Amino acid sequence: MTDKSLIGMEFPPFRFLVEEGKLMEFVRAIHADDPVFADREAANAAGFAALPAPPTFSCATAHWQPADDSNPLQLDLSRVLAGGNEWEYRRPILAGEEYTVRTRISDVSEKTGSKGVMTLIVREMSFYDAADTLVLIARSTIIQLPPPPPATASEVLPT
Amino acid sequence: MNANENNVFLRFTVGDQAPERRVGPINRTDIVRYAGAGGDFNPIHHDETFAQRSGYRSVFGHGLFTAGVLSAYATSWLGLAALRKYSVRYVSQVWPGDTLILSGQVAGVNELATGCTEVECDLFVQREAANGERTLVLTAHAVASYDLQRARPHV
Could you give the CA distance from residue B96 to residue B127 in angstroms, rounded to a whole number? Predict the structure, then answer.
């Protein structure tokens, strides 16, 4: 069900510390082989004061978000798909930095696909550094499919 | 393929292509490793029973896993400090056993009034199944900005 009243909903801000160990785990997980992400000398040579985070590392904030079992968006995980993500960068995020992340729902809409009416929810996270300067905006579109597709082995596409 | 962040001669032309990269075959351990690294524990990505009850033939990779793999490919080509925008749209799933095929090309080069050069790229990930069949799984768009006067990515 589409609930437009969710637009503008804000979540409590939280702290996000960019740890080198977590960065390395992420770099390996995404098969990033560029030494700039793993070797301090390569990072320094490229003009970075510390190891830089890969462009999508912002999603590791999932580990820092306050635990919330109330499911405020009323999502059914068996019907939820990632529709897309986008990032706007002012500069790369670096190991050792601490951010304050502010999250809001920036849009809720409906789209009719082959399976019926889908709900699209856009969550926007803004990353502010220690000087309270906006460094990164990350948006994710969450798709909730219509009620249960038949339990066949067919491939269900998100579009 | 590694872009030198300081390269004065770093210039792009419409139609330029990044060298294709293959990653995989992706296995369940890759998916679980990404779940831990990225913090997304939706069971549809690691619990076979849950995935099949939800109508999928098996668990499948996180969209952000594929987006992450492609992002590092993009920055190796464009330079991390120059990256201004990166957006991805998920088209289909990545199944265990698939190999990711990464590609990209320059779609536009714009000289801005600020003296910076903005480069727009289209990027793609296909999955290659064990039988060799390829399917598009993700499309992406990246914008990088360079200040050639300063011979540095525009920060």
Answer: 10
Torsion sign (Cα): A14, A108, A56, B153: negative
Residue A42 lies in a domain: yes
pLDDT tens series, chain A, 159 aa: 567 888 999 999 999 999 999 999 999 999 999 999 999 999 999 999 999 999 999 999 988 887 766 677 777 777 888 889 999 999 999 999 999 999 999 999 998 888 788 999 999 999 999 999 999 999 999 988 887 655 554 555 554
Measured CA to CA, the distance from residue A90 to residue A93 in angstroms comes to 9
Can you give the residue range of the structural domain that contains A29? Answer: 4-144
What are the boundaries of each domain within chain B? 17-26+61-153
Q: Is B36 helix (H, G, I), strand (E, B) or coil?
A: helix
- Tens digits of residue pLDDT in B13-53: 999 999 999 999 999 999 999 999 999 999 999 999 999 99
Look up the ipTM and state it: 0.90
Residue A19 sits in a domain whose CATH number is 3.10.129.10
Chain A interface, mutation test: which of B54, B83, B100, B116, most A Cβ atoms within 10 Å? B54
Distance in angstroms (rounded) separating the CA atoms of residues A39 and A32: 12
Domain count, chain A: 1
Residue A153, exposed/middle/buried by CB under 10 A (0-12, 13-18, 19+)? Answer: exposed
Does residue A43 lie within any of the structural domains? yes
Q: Point out the residue among A26, A30, A84 whose CB comes nearest to the CB of B90.
A: A84
Nearest residue in chain B measured CA to CA from A79: B54
Question: Distance (Å) from the C-alpha of residue A27 to the closest C-alpha of chain B?
Answer: 9
- The answer to whether domain B17-26+61-153 has CATH 3.10.129.10 is yes
Q: How far is B122 from chain A (nearest CA, A)?
A: 14
